[in-house]
Amino acid sequence: QVQLAESGGGLVQAGGSLKLSCAASGRTFGGNAMGWFRQAPGKERDFVATISSSGENIYYADFVKGRFTISRDNAKNTVYLQMDSLKPEDTAVYYCAVRTRAGALGFAGAYGYWGQGTQVTVSS
Q1: Under a CB-based contact definition with an 8 Å cutoff, are residues 26 and 15 in contact?
Q2: For residues 24 and 83, what is the distance between their CA atoms, to the nearest angstrom?
Q3: Using CA atoms, how far apart are residues 42 and 52, in angstroms rounded to an integer?
Q4: Are 18 and 12 in contact (CB under 8 A)?
Q5: Contact 84/21 with Cβ under 8 angstroms?
Q6: Which 3-state string (H, E, C) describes the chain?
Q7: Residue 14 in contact with residue 88, Cβ under 8 Å?
Q8: pLDDT by residue (tens digit) across 78-123?
Q9: Could you tell me which residues come within 8 angstroms of residue 122 by beta carbon, excluding any fewer than 6 positions away?
Q10: How far is 12 from 48, CA to CA, in rounded Å?
């Protein structure tokens, strides 16, 4: 069965950095785009970043451009999110996902497999 295991979340001061990892198992997703989403308490799940199967096409939400970097290692079936210059408003549960259906890249409904989420908390 497919599983996406996220790690790397934690508590960090504003201005600090974290690197999230998401290792997939059960299937190989080298032919799929993968992405990161986040959800803060009481808010909608928001698109953060996505990366194509080759890693050559990358798109970010405006609020993370210049601060976050998405990457992938298909040999390890893993996607990463490097987060720098973190702000308190970045506090959320971060989810990785695999795109399996047609739809806008930022549309959560296009992603068919999801990780369990990892908590990121940024203090002032």
Answers
A1: no
A2: 20
A3: 30
A4: yes
A5: no
A6: CCEEEEECCEEEECCCCEEEEEEEECCCCCCCCEEEEEECCCCCCEEEEEECCCCCCEEECHHHCCCEEEEEECCCCEEEEEECCCCHHHCEEEEEEEECCCCCCCCHHHEEEECCCEEEEEEC
A7: yes
A8: 999 999 999 999 999 999 999 999 888 889 999 999 999 999 999 9
A9: 11, 12, 13, 14, 16, 86, 87, 88, 89, 90, 91
A10: 19
Both tokens assigned to 9: 């979340």
Question: Over the stretch 1-28, which tens digit does the pLDDT of each residue have?
Answer: 999 999 999 999 999 999 999 999 999 9
Q: Six-digit token pair at 111?
A: 């992603």
Residue type, 7: S
Measured distance between the N- and C-terminal CA atoms of the chain, rounded to whole angstroms: 40
